Amino acid sequence: MILSISNLSKTYPNGVQALKNVALSIPTGMFGLLGPNGAGKSTLMRTIATLQEPDAGSIFLDSLDVVKQKDEVRKILGYLPQEFGVYPKVSAEMMLDHLAVLKGITNAKQRKELVDALLHQTNLDDVRKKNLGTFSGGMKQRFGIAQALLGNPKLIIVDEPTAGLDPAERNRFHNLLSAIGENIVVILSTHIVDDVSDLCSHMAIISEGEVLLTGEPLKVIHDLQGKIWKKTIDKRELADCQSRFKVISTRLFAGKTVIHVFSETQPDGTFEAVEAGLDDVYFSTLAKA
Ligand code: ADP
């Protein structure tokens, strides 16, 4: 199974061009769509999820025309949107049961088994009777995955699922996502590099509506080895460094400013070679654009 996106473009009525000729080939397994806020990720996710129309271009899941055959797509789609609203006064179990009915699972016994299995899979057994309004961010997101898994989807879209989760919740959520089958297409949109490096076998970087890079995380990291250099500086030196070198990222470590520079060769004697990571791939790709 493969999701093929070709020449996809979208301009909103206010003139913002959110997608510019996007082309992506997404195989089964976990695919990371990485980009900063405003890159066009949600626009792309909503378009694949049949919730909005592109101006031009096509999306096919094998032979299924996603843009035209919306009803067919919805039968095989699981979607966790960025803003996942819940009815606060309804329990997890009741809500999931209700959503299962909407998905067309009308046999009560079958539905109960399914709801039980999903609550178990998402580690919500203990809180099944609790109202959704009392759930933490991480619990809500796990519930969001439970509802996205209803009806054995072949295509799952999760839009920025870990934003706002604390590290333990994020870790739990990662484990849950990684357990979802490798035989379906799972698209994870995120601005968090670690989400992609932890989980995804394939990825794309998108910015200002354009795909800047696609590949396998291990491969794109490998391609950057030997070209990333690190230096700890005083923050007053930053402007000078930025004018002399290709500074791709700056971060604070123990109160000091640490810069990463992209360079084919040692920039000058004061830099230390570092092993490239996916964050270096991400920041150098954005810097190039
Ligand atoms: P991301 O999910 O990567 O943050 P979005 O797809 O939400 O990006 O947004 C891409 C661009 O389109 C942004 O500039 C955003 O402000 C704009 N945008 C998104 N939705 C709308 C809309 N309904 N109307 C007008 N502009 C929008």
Layout of SSEs?
Elements: E1 2-11, E2 17-27, E3 29-34, H1 41-48, E4 56-61, E5 64-65, H2 70-75, E6 77-80, H3 92-102, H4 108-121, H5 137-148, E7 155-159, H6 167-178, E8 185-190, H7 193-199, E9 202-207, E10 210-215, H8 217-224, E11 228-233, H9 238-244, E12 246-253, E13 256-262, E14 272-273, H10 278-288
Parallel strand pairs: 3-8, 3-9, 6-7, 7-8
Antiparallel strand pairs: 1-2, 1-4, 4-5, 9-10, 11-13, 11-14, 12-13
Helix pairs in contact: 3-4, 5-6
The protein binds adenosine-5'-diphosphate (ADP).
Adenosine-5'-diphosphate binds at residues 12, 14, 16, 18, 35, 37-43.
Short description:
The chain is of the alpha/beta class and 289 residues long. 33% of the residues lie in helices and 29% in strands.
Question: How does this structure look, described?
Answer:
- There is one protein chain.
- This protein has 289 residues and is α/β, with parallel strands linked by helices.
- It folds into two domains: 3-215, Rossmann fold (3-Layer(aba) Sandwich); 224-288.
- Helices cover 33% and strands 29% of the residues.
- The protein is built from ten helices and 14 strands.
- It has helices spanning 41-48, 70-75, 92-102, 108-121, 137-148, 167-178, 193-199, 217-224, 238-244, 278-288; strands spanning 2-11, 17-27, 29-34, 56-61, 64-65, 77-80, 155-159, 185-190, 202-207, 210-215, 228-233, 246-253, 256-262, 272-273.
- The strands form three sheets. The protein has a six-stranded mixed β-sheet with strand order 6-7-8-3-9-10, with helices on both faces. A four-stranded antiparallel β-sheet has the order 2-1-4-5. Strands 12-13-11-14 form a four-stranded antiparallel β-sheet.
- Helix 3 crosses helix 4 (108-121) and helix 5 runs parallel beside helix 6.
- The longest helix has 14 residues, at 108-121.
- The radius of gyration is 21 Å and the shape is globular.
- It starts with a strand and ends with a helix.
- The model has no long low-confidence stretch (mean pLDDT 94).
- Bound molecules: adenosine-5'-diphosphate.
- Adenosine-5'-diphosphate (ADP) binds next to helix 1.
